[in-house]
């Protein structure tokens, strides 16, 4: 079984076992087989990170002429592998990150049949664009409670409270009352007035006591 393999990197997650740099997606890479237990896997490298010593060993074992995956490569990438076999790519770091000609390889049909999913709107935003602020629910204005005129009869000397009454209440100011509001005189008696019953209980503001 071939111990060397070439292929297009399926993702950008793998790293070169020599320089430790990431291999970009669809970059042509070369792998050396390793077996751990019964599991076979590969240690991947950039083509330029395949050393002279590895090349010499591969020539001695014949693996260099029996590289797995070679037949499925695009013509341009086959030429690159041929350069590797000659030792022309050793230390040629400018080919790092080169994306292979995968659309002219044996993998082209599967890529056309399964195109990558399009990014959503969130991924299409221009760099630096800020998200629109999220609107919260508008709070309803709470109306201020009406005093129904209760505090209109309050003074610095007397406070007003609300009580249920069935007759006029004597005004503490008596004949000297300075009020002119008809509503006040309908609710309070002033010396000569007669405190008569209204016939029903009403809730009224009452000048109660001194502060």
From TrEMBL:
Region (Disordered): 106-155, 191-211
UniProt GO molecular function: DNA binding; ligase activity; zinc ion binding
Compositional bias (Polar residues): 191-200
Residue ranges constituting the PARP-type domain according to the UniProt record: 4-83
Subcellular location: Nucleus
GO cellular component: nucleus
InterPro entries: APLF_PBZ, Znf_PARP, Znf_PARP_sf
Coiled-coil regions listed: none
Pfam families referenced in this protein's UniProt entry, alphabetically: zf-CCHH, zf-PARP
Cross-referenced PROSITE patterns: ZF_PARP_2
Domain of life where this protein originates: Eukaryota
Entry-linked SMART domains: zf-PARP
Biased composition (Acidic residues): 144-155
Keywords from the UniProt entry: Ligase, Metal-binding, Nucleus, Zinc, Zinc-finger
Protein's UniProt name: Poly(ADP-ribose) polymerase and DNA-Ligase Zn-finger region/PBZ domain containing protein, putative
């Amino acid at each position: 079984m071939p111990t060397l393999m070439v292929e297009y990197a399926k993702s950008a997650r793998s790293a070169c076992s020599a320089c430790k740099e990431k291999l970009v997606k669809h970059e042509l890479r070369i792998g050396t087989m390793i077996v751990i237990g019964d599991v076979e896997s590969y240690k991947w490298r950039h083509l330029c990170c395949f050393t002279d010593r590895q090349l010499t060993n591969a020539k001695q074992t014949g693996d260099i002429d029996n590289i797995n995956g070679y037949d499925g490569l695009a013509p341009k990438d086959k030429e690159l592998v041929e350069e590797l076999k000659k030792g022309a790519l050793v230390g040629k770091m400018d080919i790092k990150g080169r994306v292979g000609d995968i659309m002219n390889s044996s993998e082209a049909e599967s890529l056309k049949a399964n195109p990558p999913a399009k990014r959503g709107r969130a991924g299409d935003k221009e760099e630096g664009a800020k998200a629109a602020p999220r609107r919260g629910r508008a709070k309803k204005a709470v109306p201020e409670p009406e005093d129904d005129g209760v505090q209109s009869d309050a003074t610095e000397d007397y406070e007003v409270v609300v009580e249920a009454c069935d007759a006029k209440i004597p005004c503490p100011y008596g004949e000297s009352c300075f009020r002119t509001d008809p509503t006040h005189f309908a609710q309070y008696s002033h010396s000569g007035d007669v405190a008569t019953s209204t016939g029903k209980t009403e809730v009224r503001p009452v000048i109660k006591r001194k502060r």
